[in-house]
Specification:
Blueprint: H1 6-27, H2 40-82
Length: about 80
């Protein structure tokens, strides 16, 4: 890796600071970044809650139904294999 010239580092630092100072103005265009008191914050929080819990509910439901099905099938298999014919 080629070492950077000190002047290049200074210019890069100035650019980073300039972008950081101008970023809040740009972020106001984002619906998520600049909440107002118009209900958008509540809607965003509800949507986040739904998107966070939904995968757990789906996976949990699948595991529940598979285990219930396996438990229901296991006694019938053991009865048929243990009873002499």
């Amino acid at each position: 890796m080629i070492p950077a010239h000190p002047e290049t580092k200074r210019i890069a630092a100035i650019l980073i600071v300039a972008v950081a100072l101008l970023a809040p103005r740009v972020s106001e265009a984002c619906a998520v970044c600049s909440f107002r008191d118009d209900g958008s914050q509540r809607g965003f929080m509800i949507g986040t809650l739904i998107m966070t819990t939904l995968p757990f509910l789906v996976i949990g439901s699948i595991i529940f139904f598979v285990r219930r099905h396996m438990r229901g099938a296991a006694p019938s298999l053991s009865r048929s294999s243990s009873s002499p014919s």
